[in-house]
Amino acid sequence: xxxxxxxxxxxxxxxxxxxxxxxxxxxxxxxxxxxxxxxxxxxxxxxxxxxxxxxxxxxxxxxxxxxxxxxxxxxxxxxxxxxxxxxxxxxxxxxxxxxxxxxxxxxxxxxxxxxxxxxxxxxxxxxxxxxxxxxxxxxxxxxxxxxxxxxxxxxxxxxxxxxxxxxxxxxxxxxxxxxxxxxxxxxxxxxxxxxxxxxxxxxxxxxxxxxxxxxxxxxxxxxxxxxxxxxxxxxxxxxxxxxxxxxxxxxxxxxxxxxxxxxxxxxxxxxxxxxxxxxxxxxxxxxxxxxxxxxxxxxxxxxxxxxxxxxxxxxxxxxxxxxxxxxxxxxxxxxxxxxxxxxxxxxxxxxxxxxxxxxxxxxxxxxxxxxxxxxxxxxxxxxxxxxxxxxxxxxxxxxxxxxxxxxxxxxxxxxxxxxxxxxxxxxxxxxxxxxxxxxxxxxxxxxxxxxxxxxxxxxxxxxxxxxxxxxxxxxxxxxxxxxxxxxxxxxxxxxxxxxxxxxxxxxxxxxxxxxxxxxxxxxxxxxxxxxxxxxxxxxxxxxxxxxxxxxxxxxxxxxxxxxxxxxxxxxxxxxxxxxxxxxxxxxxxxxxxxxxxxxxxxxxxxxxxxxxxxxxxxxxxxxxxxxxxxxxxxxxxxxxxxxxxxxxxxxxxxxxxxxxxxxxxxxxxxxxxxxxxxxxxxxxxxxxxxxxxxxxxxxx
Length: 700
Ligand SMILES: [Zn+2]
Known about the structure:
By secondary structure, this protein is an alpha/beta fold. The chain has 28 helices and 25 strands.
């Protein structure tokens, strides 16, 4: 193995190809992974050819990651494998064959020996290839993939052999009607329907494409596709959507398993450097949900019905993508069908009986706001104004709301209070808003536990589970656990239920609003008025046994938690000359449960690290300290064998993205802009620990 070179080995590889590249001298995990694609491109070599070039440089073979022995995979813990990008392919008593992109990484070598007690024999694979292979090798056996995987393998072997050596691009109609291609398209669509997928992603990759299904809002990796299969599948799906006799891209195409189970498939494609990405949305045409179907519950259910029953005012619906706002709007309009209802939409997804749905058509030359104004001349009782994107639309919406009409509109914000904030930020006077706004309904969707397989939480058996930890942090008793069965495709969850946060503008709230409150004042006033937050409603669903704390945390992502790894790892070293910054950083880390050591200059930090008295788990350091150079500390951490793989987060005042790149290349795992914001710091620390493999895999 060649590690004596003064250059980054990628630089040497590039030099062999006649390229002189500017790369940091010392390779580390992140720099190889990040620099590889760029170096390959600079050398004008496709990924596989560049891999051969690198393998030649290290005088080792190119790995075939498609065949690995699952027993050998287990010899390297997932965290270590992901940290360095390693996949064990086979092993004997004394040695283990490992695919890597960075054979020069001594820390990886050391950790393989430590965990497998075997000597590694390295084979070369590119970071992209390894990334996909790792997903496969360590993927939980919970996704609905096995059936499809077997079929794709059969199809790829039997039917694609003759055509695999053709490139991307054009296919003859003969090829598109090839039984193998047709079958593959059918399988992917039908399995998607069977597993209740709402989206099918056919994603290209440098070496392999993949198919993923979105089931109950969560993407599941289903199967990898060899490039030949990927390209033909894409061509076949596009053919179905756009080129068949009678095909209408606007309507999509119909997918069915039986005469009564069918969906409309809408297809979008985007070119990427690796090929074409296809995104299919599956919708049930003409199945308009009722409010009852959506599963609202408790006081929020009553509030929603009261809000919709009122004849006038603005009802603002907010939520990020896929949070259930579209279904809610359709259900709400449907419930109002006895009145004159007009809906102005970008592209109507469902036909709602009794509702006049107008598709906004920019080719008329009229703006969205102008079209909306025209529709108001038809004197509807209820109007759905779609998403409020500009001040002109917002003004019309407010005007309409005070003229005895009910108007529904959406904005993409995360909660009820920020929905109000968005309208104010657009330029609406809060006094006007106070007069017109009736309610803000903000939504999230969480997955509902599968009734066939969910089981009661067992205090003994589940003591170490993530569910138990999250529940104890929040001070709520865990109730149920997700398991997984055939009915729920192994996910443990079946269907979604809404978590609403509803701000109703009461007379008291109107007075607060008119005073241009800040977000905190607004939130307090709403809570005083009886608004329950997402977290409160969500935890009630947990208490009712409908979902889990894990699921609430996945969706809300804001549940404050003590980091579960903090207790089991060494202290964090905080290096900063500014007392104020040191104080903030240390106190956040302590709140997360970490022990903290502090240093005010580079020399002290260095000696603390080098003494070996304590096994630090991470370093958080200021880059610019008077009289000492932060980059020098960073360099010395990366050069010492004992601290080489220690995660480092750099605190910087520079907002220049070039500096950030340089920091990462110099060996920082991440950086954080000053002034330090507690939540962001917490998120970064968690992410860095997770990436570097310090976090033990979440309990299950
Ligand atoms: Zn189940």
